[in-house]
Amino acid sequence: MNYSVLVAATQKLFAAFYAALANAKTIGQAVEESRVALHADEDRHTFTRRNEKGELVEETVRLRDWFLPALYQQASDPVVFASQTQPATTATPKTMPPALTNPNLPGALPTASKYGFHGRSRELLQLERAFAKHAIVVVHGFGGMGKTTLAAEAGRWFYRTRRFPGGAAFVSFEHGGSLQQLCSWVGQAVSGDPNFVLGEGDPVARVASLLQEKPALVILDNFESVLAMSPSASLGRAPLMPAEELKAVLDAVWLWADGNANKHTPHGPRLLITTRDTSFNDSRFSPSQACRHVALQGLALPGFKEGAAKERNESLEVSLQFSLQRLGEATRAALPDLAVFQGGAMENDILNVTQMSEDLWQQAKQELEQAALVIAENLPNFNVPFLRFHPTLLPYLTTQLPTERRAEVENRYWREYYGTANSLYKLDTQHPHEARAIAVRELPNLQRALQLAIAAGEVEMVGSFAEHIAKFLNNFGRWRERDAMLAEVSQWANTQMKKAVASEGKLTKTEYLLLSRQGMNLWQQGRAAEAEQIFLRLLQRMETGADYDAAYDQAMTFAQLGRCFDAHGQSAKAIVWHRKALQGFERLKITGNNLGWVYFELANNLRKSGQFDEAHLNYENAWKIAREANDFRNAGVALGEMGTLALLRDDLVNAAQRYTEVLETFRKLGEPQTEAVA
Known about the structure:
Blueprint: H1 7-22, H2 27-40, E1 45-50, E2 56-61, H3 98-101, H4 121-133, E3 136-140, H5 147-160, E4 168-172, H6 179-191, H7 203-213, E5 217-221, H8 231-234, H9 243-256, E6 270-275, E7 291-295, H10 308-311, H11 315-324, H12 329-334, E8 344-346, H13 347-354, H14 358-370, E9 374-377, E10 386-389, H15 393-398, H16 403-427, H17 432-455, H18 459-475, H19 479-500, H20 509-524, H21 528-544, H22 551-567, H23 571-588, H24 593-608, H25 612-628, H26 632-648, H27 652-669, H28 672-677
Parallel strand pairs: 3-6, 3-7, 4-5, 5-6
Antiparallel strand pairs: 1-2, 8-10, 9-10
Helix pairs in contact: 1-2, 4-5, 6-7, 13-16, 16-17, 16-18, 17-18, 18-19, 19-20, 20-21, 20-22, 21-22, 22-23, 22-24, 23-24, 24-25, 25-26, 26-27
């Protein structure tokens, strides 16, 4: 041992250690108990000296150790001396919170590197000491420094060392976010309850109460994306969150970290923010008694420049070049096509967009992983991983991709993600967990692809593309982004419509799509009267003639008018339009989700009109169509309405049976919010 130890300390330590072993504790547990005993006994050292009268007296010295013995061992932790009633065994390690071990959960820490955590132990110590005195720590530095990795390791380390019994919650703002999503994810990660979001009351206050009960480390990663960064740091991009919502987020996390307290409790919750820039425009998050800033420095690599180049942190480029030099020539030549992706992508999307051969990609993927330029994240029930690129890789590859080649790759890119959005939209009806695990990672690509589709003027695709993305933004509580995206698409559609409608001649397919999308957007915004006028105008144009076969679109317009009158509370008129829509579908022999939707809407209005028998038949039709399409969510909704109908008819037995079936359906889907309604 490299340290001097008092005899009294040795006696105290080993007395507690062997006493614990004798009580059938494991070696690890015995060491922990001996450490606690040593730390708790500050009066263990005495010495004898003469007082002023020359008499020998014994005095006690209070000791507060800066060092305590530590045990380094493998995973096995045996019980050496088993009791008579308990055979010798190996202790079962304490189960870590799921958010620390399963990266697919909301608010969970990202996947740990397969190569372990190296080179940042000093910074980890800095964080530990900072949290002893400060409620908030801001780790700042250039992209690619390892801020995210350090923050994630801090979450794991501080839980293992018992600093935060509530574990950690990790929320990335790299591609935006919202206060609603932040509250939901932190609540789920710390409580371990996927139903946390269903609780009553202010979610900010509920999370604050939870963190007082179970102190945890809340990590806000890549926070620069929502800040109004300095011109030198922002590269001309706008923040991904408006100032008023940013203030609401900062107010919430300040409350959670107890930032107003003059003296922070030593074992309370803490806030860790990682960012490239510190332009919070909020004095509470400037260096102070409550907030500590820690600058993360790069590695000292050969080739690092001094002076102005050092300020631009060119060590990152040196590091990247060092990693790229380890790649094969064929891999380096194929990499620039990856520049169109936003941070990462599912492996199948990468192959479809870049059109790399399978053999070349597998070689490139292996080399990129070995160079730590790619991290593979395995998702539940999927054989294809999500690949997350190192922050320095894609900006560099952007400079290597020629303009003509970029246009070609981007065309494949947005069409690929149009198909992905459609597939995820359908998958969400059957396997919502899996669909949303992909969607939350692919959202940046989906949003970028939508912008490219708009730029390409693809009228027929933009509307449904935006609708599919909006569904997931709604699921993730990112309502501001949803509304802004739909407003942008609506404005673009209006512009396109003005260009397309040069005269009141025959209705074109493009005009129909634009007008129909405009009507649907108005209906979704609660402006049913305005939507009704648009759909009526569409029908008039169809009656005067269309330059394409508009029979299906006419039936869909009937159905949309039924929705508008339903929103007005005019069930009788809604029934008329829905029946016209069904007649049109029957003539065209249309089946599938749209037919099921019309049956369901018709049944709702029949129920409101007191026509229970016919309503039941239409609910059954909607249920059968949903079951045939494996659309379990809509099948469950139809069952629920049949239960409500039975309840209205005082058929309690049938109602209970229907509600039980609904409950089981949504439990299997893992949708606690819908389950609660059921």
